[in-house]
Amino acid sequence: MSKYTEEEIAKADGTFQPPTEFTLEYLTEQIERIEKFPGNLERVMAQLTPELLEQPYRTGGWQLKQVIHHIADSHMQAFTRFKLTLTEGTPTIKPYSQNDWANTADSEQGDVESSLAIIKGLHQRWIILLRSMHIDDFNKCYMHPEYQRTYSLAHVTGMYAWHGNHHLLQIEMFLENVKG
Q: Is 94 helix (H, G, I), strand (E, B) or coil?
């Protein structure tokens, strides 16, 4: 019997569902989630052996090491998008293929500790940036050309708080299944 609720299982495979309103309380909570994420990831990674890192987190999914490298890649993109949005008008960001990036040599063969170091350092800087932002800064947007829409930094803050925990939950569920 899984310790996870149906809602948690759906979150592990689902997509980010933004709130109808981005309140200061909501943003504060999401920033705290982003701040805590590296430590939570490190705690879960301590349970992963080199053999487990080679395993896909689910049938047809990426290997666990690819997931960890993906988090570093994705959160670097997000941080860059924040800085562009705060320093330019409404920039058009450059999309990238997450699957192609997950299949490059550094993601398939690289040591996950290097990506954990990136995540830890990046999140330290990101938290400084997020906490320095005025509430109006979260209304600033970037254009995503792949989806032909703009995303506010409030939306993106929630999305990346969700993103890290989404992958963390996938790894935790994998570990629970391995332990039986």
A: coil
